[in-house]
Design goal:
Keywords: Lyase, Pyridoxal phosphate. The protein is an alpha+beta fold. It has helices at 2-6, 23-26, 36-48, 57-60, 88-103, 122-125; strands at residues 18-22, 53-55, 76-80, 112-116, 127-130.
Length: 131
């Protein structure tokens, strides 16, 4: 309800222990080559220490034949929210952090580039640097 109130885009329906943010709508000024979902994950961590996982271009890995990055139609940030652990105040902090990032979305114009990745399962070992 708070994200709706703040106007922050997310994947509907939200439910269960997961919450997905539609990263292209939250950070519209980032090119896909700069890993939109990962950038949002970093921003959320820097904003409030909240960890999420990107479900986007890094997870999609490279094409095995061309070795080019694959860019899925949706870049998502997954937040796992254990309902029996988090209080209403925790949820308010998460929503406020999402709102703060969304309010400064026009200022977030650069993402990240890969400096190292393992040959397989790069999303576990990738190293990035801010552009």
């Amino acid at each position: 309800d708070l994200l709706d109130e703040y106007g922050v885009p997310y994947q509907r329906p939200a439910g269960g222990p997961r919450h997905l943010h539609r990263c292209q709508k939250v950070l519209p000024n980032l090119p896909k080559e700069e890993f939109i979902a990962q950038t949002l994950a970093v921003e959320l961590y820097l904003e409030a220490g909240i960890r999420g996982v990107e479900i986007g271009s890094i997870l999609a890995d490279r094409d095995p034949e061309t070795h080019e990055n694959r860019y899925p139609a949706l870049e998502l940030l997954r937040l796992a929210i254990p309902r029996r652990v988090y209080t209403d105040n925790h949820i308010r902090v998460i929503a406020a952090a999402c709102r703060n990032i969304y309010e400064r979305r026009e200022e977030i114009t650069h993402g990240y580039r890969i400096t190292f990745e393992a040959p397989i399962l790069r999303h576990f070992t990738v190293e990035l640097e801010k552009i």
